[in-house]
Amino acid sequence: MDTRWLQDFLALAEARNFTRAAARRNTSQAAFSRRIQSLEAWAGAALIDRGSFPPALTQAGEQFRLHAGELLGRLAEARSEIEGKPVFGRDHVRVALPYVIATSLFSDWWRDWTAQSQATCALVHGNVIDLVGSLVAGSADIMIAHETAQQPIHLDPDRFERLVIARDVLKPWLSRAALARGWGLPGSDQKPVPLLMYSPGIYFSRLVDLIVEAAPAPLAGIRVAESDMSDVLAGMASAGLGVAWLTASTRSRLAPDLVEAAPAGWSLPLSVVAFKARHQRKRSVNDTWHRIAAMTELSLTDPARSERTRGAKSARDAAD
Q1: Going by DSSP bridges, is the β-strand pair 268-277/120-125 parallel, antiparallel, or unpaired?
Q2: Over the stretch 92-136, which tens digit does the pLDDT of each residue have?
Q3: Which of 24, 66, 145, 155 could be cross-linked to 160 through a Cys-Cys bond (beta carbons 3.0 to 4.6 Å apart)?
Q4: Which domain holds residue 47?
């Protein structure tokens, strides 16, 4: 059996559409369909009800889905062991998240979430589509990503738990030197603003497009640079090269000297959300999830108390 068949099956079970699932797996629909048929031949049962619309799992398919993700995880561990690579213990948690969260928020969170445990982690980076695919395929235990009401992350609530773990905002920022040059938004035809933008197709690129479309005035700017990475754009903005849309958490961590490039109307509120399979069997994952939920409830309902708790912990760590 080709392990790609399992990944294809899990992608189809989530998307419930052969075309979308094939696109997510970066293959043609014909090749994707052949691999699903090969998996069914190997399993000795029909896993997909092709007579329904949209396609649904058969009873055998539903049973098989519960085991497919776990099979992929065990195969990966077995291969690592055979290759002589270090294999993590039973408390290992695989976290899928975008690079922007990994560099600005995750380290403090992981420290707090695992303060009372021996959990270890492996980080899987990618865009939102890749992250969703990793979670659905079972190659990640927990997924964390930004989300906004205009661009929600669609995962079956019957299969995946969801937590809002933080609030953030996407805003335009620039250096004080650039502000002194008059590079604030919206710019003008006589003096267009140099723009440091996300590459087309990136999730944040779509969010910036939403902001510009709803802005109180037309944007007059010149696209002088683009990148997939928020930290690259933050560095370029700090160097005075133009205006970059960054999350408040990224600016605070990586470029605290930047100032806002526009008044109200040029930003977009974001949520940081986490997802986990409801039928997760690993105790370390479920324990970490419960810890995330408990600390999230504290920080979202009483931010001041959360900051005091974090400050007290930092003081104790320094004393130790």
Answers
A1: unpaired
A2: 899 999 988 998 899 999 999 988 788 889 898 888 878 888 888
A3: 155
A4: 3-82
Residue of 193, 237, 208, 197 whose CA lies nearest to 146: 208
Instruction: Clarify whether residues 73 and 220 are in a common domain.
Output: no
Cβ atoms of 196 and 208 closer than 8 Å? no
E strands within 199-256?
Answer: 221-227, 243-247
Dihedral-angle region of residue 148 (phi above 0 means left; psi in -120 to 50 means alpha; beta otherwise)? beta
To which H or E segment does residue 169 belong?
strand 160-174
**Residue 257: pLDDT over 80:** yes
Number of domains in the chain: 3
* Single-letter amino acid code for the residue at 146: H
| Interstrand relation of 48-49 and 56-57 (parallel, antiparallel or unpaired) | antiparallel
Tell me the per-residue pLDDT of 19-66, one tens digit each, with 9 for 90 and over: 888 887 888 888 899 999 999 999 899 999 888 778 888 989 888 887
Query: Which residue, of 270, 289, 308, is where some domain finishes?
Result: 270
**Which residues contact residue 13 at a Cβ distance below 8 angstroms, ignoring those fewer than 6 apart?**
57, 61, 65, 136
**What pTM does this model have?**
0.69
Q: What angle do CA 65, 71, 72 make, to 5 degrees?
A: 100
In a domain, 150, yes or no: no
CATH at residue 68? 1.10.10.10
Whole-number Å distance between alpha carbons of 320 and 316: 6
